[in-house]
Design brief:
Elements: H1 3-16, H2 40-59, H3 70-74, H4 78-91, H5 97-108, H6 127-143, E1 148-149, E2 154-155, H7 156-177, H8 189-201, H9 205-224, H10 240-244, H11 246-249, H12 253-260, H13 274-277, H14 286-293, E3 298-304, H15 311-315, H16 320-329, H17 339-348, H18 366-371, H19 374-381, E4 393-399, E5 404-408, E6 423-426, E7 432-436, E8 463-467, E9 470-476, E10 491-495, E11 503-507, E12 510-515, E13 518-524, E14 528-530, E15 537-541, E16 544-553, H20 554-557, H21 560-569, E17 572-575, E18 578-583, E19 586-591, E20 596-598, E21 601-602, E22 610-611, E23 616-617, E24 624-628, E25 631-636, E26 641-644
Antiparallel strand pairs: 1-2, 3-4, 3-22, 4-5, 5-6, 6-7, 7-10, 8-9, 9-16, 10-15, 11-12, 12-13, 13-16, 14-15, 17-18, 18-19, 19-20, 20-21, 22-23, 24-25, 25-26
Length: about 650
Amino acid sequence: MTKARIALILAAALVAAGVSIGLDVRRHRQIPILPDTARGLDSKVRLENKVHDDHVDAHHGRPVDWSNLRDNLTYLDDFWMAPLIRIVYRHSENIDATNLAKIHQAIFGFRYWMDQPGEDGRCYWSENHQILFASAEYLAGQKFPDAIFTIDGRTGRAHQADARRRVLTWLEQRWRYGFAEWFSNVYYVEDVAPLCNLIDRSTDPEIVTKSQIILDLLLYDVATQSHRGTFISTMGRAYTRNRQSGERGNSMRGIIQNIWGFDLPVPDGKRMDGLFVFREKYRVPAVIEAIGRDSSPVVIKASQGLDLAELPAAQAGGDEDARIMLQWGMEAFSNPEVFDDTLRYVEKLRMFSNSFLHELRSADFFLLRRTGLLPTVSRVLDPISNCTPLQRANTYTYRTADYLLATAQRYHPGMLNDQHHVWSATLSNQVSIFTAHPPVPAKGKKSADENASYWVGPGRLPDAAQHENVALQIYRVPPRPTYGEKGVNHFTHAYFPRDRFDRVELRGSRVYGQHGRVYVALLGAAPLSYRPGSTDDLIQNGRDTAWVCELSTAEREGDFDAFIRRIEANPTSYHNGVLSYQTGPRRLELTYGRDFRVNGAAQDTGYARHDSPYAHTARQASAITIEFGGRRLVLDFEKQIRREE
């Protein structure tokens, strides 16, 4: 009997027994982490805001009632620890002895990593959380080297040494592989904050310089993926509001306003962006400022992250923390390539009680592990948790003075979506459009709008490809759900907010929109219609659907009606997984899971780390040079070189 057949029998037995090997990691930002869950998420947000408000008031020299921090000190999280650490470094002399002692007590008793004593429901492992926890522990240990940290009875100096290793590991992984949470306007701000703390407060020149280099690269991403200050592009992780418009969900807008001064709301520094707005030592390189203001039409290609198949080589030679940071930083838990590593680590650190990981207890079968069958069972069942990995994204962005269109090219078609945002068209700070395959609403939900995942996932990912101002997507949805899914919706949909356009024309399988001087055409392979009661949810029925998006401007087309007439005349077809579209002299053809061709020529969508007029960098290069407008930035991580020319 073959190994696969044995695994299939075991998998069937597990299903029959009702055993789950899924993880609760897909929506972990929406789960309150407070021990008393009756407090709810609103209380969590109020507590977080209080720490940031106190940071802002202290920075401006306004009186602060530090006793109001008591609830935060009871329920500290890494989001709140970042501003609290800055407060301790900069404002301790202004805090009365009683409250300062309480702050110190909270810092000494905080659990900074998974190997430290205690049990909790925190998420330590995603990319942004790793550096938030590590930077807080490092700076706490540096500030109080001889203090005994009550979490484990070790000195601050010992905590600093452990955290230093993790900080440098995180920085090196971002240098070598880029950001797993690529271009995320939600989570980039939570990388910026701890980096600013390290740059301002670390006494270690290596950490300071390397933190500056990684912050440079992050801001280069923001500069190249923003349209007039609106940072909405293809993203590794995003929620509903972060996709739909910059005014609703661009968490980086305070930082962008501080650097570039676009017509966005003036930042108040009351959230994570305050640690950048009130920074002391970091200066944004002039070339990155210039790139962020460039309005010329430009194609920007890039590659971020790793595919699962690349993990073994990337993990070779690393210590256990480095291995798990790379693996869990890309949110790979139950996939066949990593499942054994996950269980070993969770079992070693006794983490089965963690609310995100507790279902792993069901999969910790001695026989499966000893026989090496656990990865095969994972492959056979393909549980819904296998959709979480943030794998290599080859991104293609076309940015003009009027709009930005971006796609993660050919990103794992057919895989279950998690929080991936595969393509996006940003017309202004008020309007972005995109398509998605929605999941079946959770039990008890009365309508799609009540389900927070309706625009996010886990539906199926499209095969998506882009050339300049045209993007194509094909969705091929299976007839039956995978293990752990509630069902499968037999339609895809587009976010196309009719009320935010100056004019919208819906004509059968095509919809046209005018937003100021920007024109957009969204073409379906089947008739389109707005969901009853909705003005933004455009439905295309069927398990096999296709979309074409083309952007243009009044200057190029003349009036809106002329644009519609031109697009109506463009030859378009979709049949058996082949989507063809002719616009002007270009013929684009996307074959699901196979080729993407422009005028008959197959396109290579496996990109270098950077490929644009601003930078040309191979993957895992030893040095990166960014240049534009006579300015240059030279970066070499290992040699700790950061030089502006």
